[in-house]
Amino acid sequence: MNDSKPVVLVTGASKGIGLGIARVFADKGYRVAIAARHLEQAQAAADSLETEALGLAADVTDRASLEAAVNAVQAKFGQLDVLCANAGIFPSADLETMTEDDWDLVINTNLKGMFNTVQAALPVLKASQCGRIVVTSSITGPVTGFPGWSHYGASKAGQLGFVRTASIELAKYGITVNAVMPGNIITEGLEGMGEDYLRQMAASIPLKRLGRVEDIGHAAVFFASPEASYITGQTLIVDGGQILPESLEAVG
Q1: What's the domain range around 133?
Q2: Is 152 a catalytic residue?
Q3: Locate the Ketoreductase domain: which residues (predicted)?
């Protein structure tokens, strides 16, 4: 890494978990590039950070737009040290009525989009003295299931398979690859469900609260830190203990 402040690129970071990740990196002294499908939203998010930041338009299903975004990061900051592959969607569709287009949209965004993002960033990450890749997966799919999310669960479980092999292949460049697996995190989407819904969800979690987007950000920053330099191919569940109880009676 150069003597200047390290640089992180976070995809899907104009709001929600992605913006929370970006804020924590900014608070830790990183220079931050925010990528989102809409430039205005990406730039507004970048402007909200108390660090040198850049907003970029990029669609993870469009390889050319990702390559352009990485080139813009290189032109602006001269380096890229951390990639947070966070962009994802979670539309609901029951298996019996799910269309092939429904399936393809989620898989192409969440799973193939992660692949596109990592490949686009690799040439610049390889030049860093301590490259890091952090994938935002989920407990849904790898550990739990939820009706309407069979395509989402498949995409998130697939990400972990990618992480395990990519970590082996990229170790020769000193790049680590790890994944954060969020549970129920308060985002704009969840807040729109209303207070009763939020209280019901929190009641099933041992810590009796939903997670904050910053909770995921802190996990990502740990994986990016020098203290995590000997950790690769691993996952970290951040869910307040949600997956632990056998039943609601165990929560108390």
Answers
A1: 7-237
A2: yes
A3: 6-184
